[in-house]
Amino acid sequence: TAMPHRMKLLLLALLLLLATELAAGAEDARSPDAEADVSDDDDPADDKAGVDAAAPPAKPVFTPPKVPAGAYYAQFFTAPSNLAEQLVLSKSKKEGVDSDLSKYDGFWSVEVPESSAIDADFALVLKSKAKHHAVSAKLAKPFAFDQPGKQFVMQYEVKFQNGMDCGGAYVKLLTDGPGMDLKEFNDKTPYTIMFGPDKCGMDHKLHFILRHKNPKSGKIEEKHAKKPKADLDSYFNDKRTHLYTLVLNSDNSFEVYVDRSLVNSGSLLEDMQPPVNPPKEIDDPNDKKPADWDEREKIPDPKAVKPDDWDETQPEFIEDAEAVMPQGWLVDEPLTVPDPKAEKPKDWDEDMDGSWEPAQVDNPKCKEAPGCGPWTRPKVKNPKYKGKWSAPMIDNRPTRASGSRG
């Protein structure tokens, strides 16, 4: 089964579900390794001393990129702008959530991010804490995946300038269809591709999800790319800008890059979970295990007989007959003796407390001797020991542990 004959993408939608720590620009905290320059006016000591330090080097100025001919969509900002003229802000609500939390009413702003190394490098910044944010825009034209030799490339930059605790910054490409109202775009809006970073707690993800329509059943299923082996944690916590790129090739292969480094790749047909192409053979759902099915691979040899000289009464260990008590062993000396320094307490009442006895201490005579008390021979392995006899195991033939009758 190949990819759908004609799967169009009409809309580019950015869906961001953000926790408190995600609200970029909502806090004044700066990274310890912030790239922003500091002027002389920031140092009161220099002001008092009248030091005229050298001015910091000027930042490079953002230059609008040249959009390739035939691009389906490109968005960048060179100055503060009216978002409503460029993007569609969602007015929808998230289902199954309290009314105060369900609205997509997070505030967006076009401004220069914190610690920007480039002057006038404006970006789309989320300003609201613990709010749902969603914007969308139309592509120049639908993208058809049935074009021979056509490569699909989607990439965008994300900067979690205040770090990330729980939330996502992923893009959804919505499927071409009638009756689409972008103002009602939410997490339930049908999409064709979902791609981008997502994190909650210690669970870090770089989503690539494909919604595929089964050509036989007509059912739409989500196909998830395997989790990248790369360490994703730094992308969420280093407060730097990262470029996320998804490439889909006409041979049904895919590639995922972060900062132009390959972090994931595979086949759209075989390496997604579950795979687009089902396996050639599956278990028969109507088959049942026969009542006489024997799953044992090995069985006791029914022809085996216990040898006549097999003695099951012999113990596993016996006393070492060759052992000799070490010279100097103090047989008559106990291991412990009453403490000669112990004294009966003055308030000891034998009528109430019973007969007083000094505490026991290690016998000092035993410290120099090889041992004290009764001596016994150590145990050794009994050469005559065989244990309880059991028949040897043989192959259970014909074995039917994991197969069918025929």
From TrEMBL:
<dbReference type="InterPro" id="IPR001580">
    <property type="entry name" value="Calret/calnex"/>
</dbReference>
<dbReference type="Pfam" id="PF00262">
    <property type="entry name" value="Calreticulin"/>
</dbReference>
<feature type="disulfide bond">
    <location>
        <begin position="166"/>
        <end position="200"/>
    </location>
</feature>
<comment type="function">
    <text>Calcium-binding protein that interacts with newly synthesized monoglucosylated glycoproteins in the endoplasmic reticulum. It may act in assisting protein assembly and/or in the retention within the ER of unassembled protein subunits. It seems to play a major role in the quality control apparatus of the ER by the retention of incorrectly folded proteins. Required for embryogenesis and larval development under heat and ER stress conditions. May be important for germ cell development. Involved in neuronal necrotic cell death.</text>
</comment>
<feature type="signal peptide">
    <location>
        <begin position="1"/>
        <end position="25"/>
    </location>
</feature>
<keyword id="KW-0472">Membrane</keyword>
<protein>
    <recommendedName>
        <fullName>Calnexin</fullName>
    </recommendedName>
</protein>
<feature type="region of interest" description="Disordered">
    <location>
        <begin position="28"/>
        <end position="60"/>
    </location>
</feature>
<keyword id="KW-0732">Signal</keyword>
<feature type="region of interest" description="Disordered">
    <location>
        <begin position="268"/>
        <end position="315"/>
    </location>
</feature>
<dbReference type="GO" id="GO:0051082">
    <property type="term" value="F:unfolded protein binding"/>
</dbReference>
<feature type="compositionally biased region" description="Basic residues">
    <location>
        <begin position="378"/>
        <end position="387"/>
    </location>
</feature>
<dbReference type="InterPro" id="IPR009033">
    <property type="entry name" value="Calreticulin/calnexin_P_dom_sf"/>
</dbReference>
<dbReference type="GO" id="GO:0005509">
    <property type="term" value="F:calcium ion binding"/>
</dbReference>
<feature type="compositionally biased region" description="Acidic residues">
    <location>
        <begin position="34"/>
        <end position="45"/>
    </location>
</feature>
<dbReference type="GO" id="GO:0005789">
    <property type="term" value="C:endoplasmic reticulum membrane"/>
</dbReference>
<keyword id="KW-1015">Disulfide bond</keyword>
<feature type="region of interest" description="Disordered">
    <location>
        <begin position="329"/>
        <end position="406"/>
    </location>
</feature>
<dbReference type="InterPro" id="IPR013320">
    <property type="entry name" value="ConA-like_dom_sf"/>
</dbReference>
<dbReference type="InterPro" id="IPR018124">
    <property type="entry name" value="Calret/calnex_CS"/>
</dbReference>
<keyword id="KW-0256">Endoplasmic reticulum</keyword>
<dbReference type="GO" id="GO:0036503">
    <property type="term" value="P:ERAD pathway"/>
</dbReference>
<dbReference type="GO" id="GO:0006457">
    <property type="term" value="P:protein folding"/>
</dbReference>
<comment type="similarity">
    <text>Belongs to the calreticulin family.</text>
</comment>
<keyword id="KW-0812">Transmembrane</keyword>
<keyword id="KW-0143">Chaperone</keyword>
<keyword id="KW-1133">Transmembrane helix</keyword>
<feature type="compositionally biased region" description="Basic and acidic residues">
    <location>
        <begin position="280"/>
        <end position="308"/>
    </location>
</feature>
